Amino acid sequence: MNAFDTIIRGGRISTASDTFSCDIGIRGGRIAALGHDLGTAPEIINAEGKWVLPGGIDSHVHFSQPSGEGIVMADDFESGTRSAAFGGNTTVLPFCLQEKGQSLREAVKSYHAKADGECFVDVSFHLIITDPTDQVLGQELPALVQDGYTSFKVFMTYEGMALSDMDMLRVMAVARDSRALVMVHAENYDIIRFLTDQLERSGKTEPKYHVISRPITAEREATHRAISLAEITDVPLMIVHVSNREAMEEIRRAQQKGLKVFGETCPQYLTLTENDLGGLNMEGAKYVCSPPPRDLSSQEACWEGLQQGVFSVFSSDHCPFRYDDPNGKLVPRGRTSFRWVPNGIPGVAARLPILFSEGVMKGRIDINRFVALTSTNHAKTYGLYPHKGTIAVGADADIAIWDPDIKQVLTHDLLHDGSDYTPYEGIALTGWPVLTMVRGKVVVRNGELVGQKGHGRYLSRERSAYA
Length: 467
Ligand code: DUC
Ligand code: ZN
Ligand code: ZN
Hints:
Elements (H helix, E strand, L loop, with lengths): L5 E4 L2 E3 L4 E3 L1 E5 L2 E6 L7 E4 L4 E4 L1 E6 L15 H10 L2 E9 L6 H12 L6 E2 L2 E3 L5 H13 L4 E5 L9 H14 L2 E5 L3 H13 L7 H5 L2 H18 L3 E3 L5 H12 L4 E5 L2 H4 L24 H13 L2 E4 L17 H5 L14 H11 L5 H15 L17 E11 L18 E11 L2 E5 L2 E2 L18
Parallel strand pairs: 1-6, 2-7, 8-9, 9-10, 9-11, 11-12, 12-13, 13-14, 14-15, 15-16
Antiparallel strand pairs: 1-4, 2-3, 4-5, 7-17, 17-18, 18-19, 19-20
Bound molecules: dihydropyrimidine-2,4(1H,3H)-dione and zinc ion (2 copies).
One zinc ion (ZN) binds next to loops.
């Protein structure tokens, strides 16, 4: 009998802390040995000349999320996790949205029904709290944290989703008491409403005005306020999808004070600008997301945040809608005002190749920081480490093999999602994930889907390493 089911031979392995060359012996879906001369196995994967990295963990994606009347999200759990695998990811953390009036348990049940048997990679849910009733805060939330739903997101903006400061404090206090982590969408709701009304009154309704309606000031103020509320309640806080320097500096200041405040940025804030929303007709709708892309100096600030550790995670915020579709970006109401254009862009498969090429290959970050930002820190922050997020004996064999010599222009057909475009079309990339393995099973090999739907499992999570 062979000691291993699979051996990955001859690759250069990088983790968040080290780089070394050795073979990987895999047995029963886990890494069983790292070394040389591991013998033979039924499956030998030749990784010579390739980089062998922990599979990507994308801790910020949206699949099958209700998005308003007449709007359909472009990815369900099947297409979303398939696309994730093509982009070198082995685990994703989608959101489970509580609808107003819905019990959290019901919401969780309905998301499990959407995901069960559909996934190509492993998944685990964050909860979105929109209706923090006494029942939700007093009973459901603590019980769900106990059951492994150990992080939740709250919104400071959006009709029907925005929480008051009082409700944020109440949610945060429950998170602290049950040792959960709170994620915040930080934009000032009233500033956005005020500016949107003003823009509409003066006929400024095209997608490009979306950016004007959500200025950096609105994001900076809400970031500061969310941090203050977390300081008062003594809870670990993740500010998600940070787009600019002023918000980044708020997070840095909190970290320097010793607060458990973390930051996330995303590919759109490194590669897109407000000018992308200015396309003719409705083309700009392809780039409508919140917070919006800013300018080149904001991109520089986001790179600085990644380089200096102010941002510990780099996620896609994959929130996909089809473009040429009346149930997507071209919903009829959206032509009357940017207010109604579905908010969000796809990116689950593009995230890693963009950071690999723009970050590692261009010398902005080293490969160890790449692994930390795209895998290890997600696992630590969201209670999946050390089963996930590293290459070590005993860890799940969740591995992406990268060919650093592949050069190609990013096109939508490489991404295999349910949308009909990518906002990153035309970016010239160096490096590409040529194999994605989830718990020892190859899911994508050389651009071919070889994994089985249903191999992806639901992961109940431990507490955050920071809670
Ligand atoms: N927030 C997200 O996290 N994703 C898409 C839209 C939004 O506002
Ligand atoms: Zn958000
Ligand atoms: Zn999001």
